[in-house]
Amino acid sequence: MAVDESNTSPYTAGQAIANLQQTEHLGDRYYAAWWLGKHRVQDPAAIEGLLAALGDELDRSPDGGYPLRRNAARALGKVQDPRIVSALIACLDCDDYYVREAAAQSLEMQGDGAAIAPLSAFLTGGINVATAVPGRPHLIHPYEAIIEALGTLGATTAIPLIEPFLEHPVEKVQFAAARALYQLTADPHYGDRLVRGLQANKLPLRRSALIDLGATTYLAGAEAIAKTFAENSLKLIALKGLLENHLRQQSADSPSLTAESQQVMALMDSLL
Amino acid sequence: MTSDTTTDSIQPLLTAIDNASSADALVGAVRALGASHDPAVIPKLIEVLGFNNPGAAVAAVDGLVRFGTIAVPTLLDNLDGYDYGARAWANRALSQIGDPRALDTLLDAAQADFALSVRRAAAKGLGFLNWSALPVEAQHPAQQKVFTALTTVLTDEEWVVRYGAIAGLQELAQRQPHWRDPVLAVLGDRLPQEPEIGVQARLSWAIQAIA
């Protein structure tokens, strides 16, 4: 893939790796880390550079954050190497909220059950400790990303820890909990919670519920997705997610399209 | 009914659009406008497509589609070159009306518009043209253009545009059975190349429906 890119873009994997390794131009390193993730560059030197960037101390934002670490943590979700999961788990202890969030999201993408215990540990205090940071637009930990990762990782042991978050005052956190609990239990009660989210007054919340339903196999929500007051583009993405999750769930020896698949596709057709 | 009384009767509907104080009020006003039988409301419905309000745009598209072919010349004359959101809704209206006077516009939009929402609406619409509105001798050459264009669009870089092309090709074959075999051939060729499983499923569904 990196080779293809070099034909169309003057910026190559080799250059990105070199830019990541130097320490003089911080902006070039930051961009290189993002680029390597976007293009899923598997080159060992790229992965080495990204792993090293997780410990960077040079690139600091005014709020004390670590911009390069954030990008490196995001990029490492998209490539494969046996060292990545433990390095990302270590990032869950970083002082920077956004590094922890990127690490949780990347651990979700890595799909390795080793992340379940450290991610679950964030939830043991329940919702009373999951409070907002004064003056910041976020809670003390990236609960949405943590809960979503636990759902994707199939962390059934975390069900009792996730359940209280259905009552968290932040609605997006409630949605994340409903999404994960549906993934972990297939109980329609949780799917319905997300369908109700499609009726939220604020568009960003409706969008959030759309994305969350698209991460599940809750086919009963398809019709409601199609009727949501939101952009067709996003509804199409949500329905495609639902369709693909359903298709992956079917056994490989029954390749024929189910009635449910056809219903979802008919709804998608109506939104083109 | 004279044109003066017509204008008088739609004036409150137009004013309601301009004075809508909330997104919900606007949607209601657009629904009322779209329910009018007076073609004089068509330009206003087209204007609403550019308001960046999805609910209002859906209602305006419904209204335009209800007018059908009468709305087509005004739609074609007022395609917004700057606002791709408005252009996507207009192409959606043209696609649902199916008037072949929109053929060149839809061909161009499906293949060349930079906005994927415009390409996907146009790609689907190319399959839904009302062929009987064209003189018999013009039908086959126009269908050939649609088939060639949609075959290209099957390889668009965006999955949703490819998905639209599949829906369009399926409808072409179902409306015009002599296109069945060529459409089956291009869809079958595409299946092993298609990277997204959702789009693969749409290919399989189309093949199943046509075959």
Q: Could you please describe the fold and organization of this structure?
A:
The complex is a heterodimer of chains A (272) and B (211). Chain A is mostly helical. In chain A, 61% of the residues lie in helices and 0% in strands. Chain A is built from 16 helices and no strands. Chain A is globular. The N terminus of chain B is likely disordered. Chain B is an all-alpha fold and 211 residues long. Chain B has twelve helices and no strands.
List descriptors.
heterodimer; A: mainly alpha; Leucine-rich Repeat Variant; 16 helices; B: 211 residues; mainly alpha; 2 domains; 12 helices; elongated; disordered N terminus
Task: Give the overall shape of chain A, derived from the CA principal axes.
Answer: globular
- The quaternary state of the protein chains shown equals heterodimer
Question: How many separate helices of chain B?
Answer: 12
Specify Rg of chain B, calculated over alpha carbons: 19 Å
CATH level-1 class of the largest domain in chain B: Mainly Alpha
The CATH class assignment of the domain at 1-99 in chain A is Mainly Alpha
β-strand percent of chain A reads: under 5%
N/C terminus separation of chain A = 31 Å
- Can you count the helices of chain A? 16
SSE series of chain A: HHHHHHHHHHHHHHHH
Number of strands of chain B: 0
Structural class of chain A: mainly alpha
Major sheet of chain A: none
Gross morphology of chain B is elongated
- Head-to-tail CA distance between termini of chain B: 52 Å
Please, what is the average pLDDT of chain B? 92
**Content of β-strand of chain B:** under 5%
Q: What would CATH call the homologous superfamily of the domain at 1-99 in chain A?
A: Leucine-rich Repeat Variant
Remind me, CATH topology of the domain at 1-99 in chain A? Leucine-rich Repeat Variant
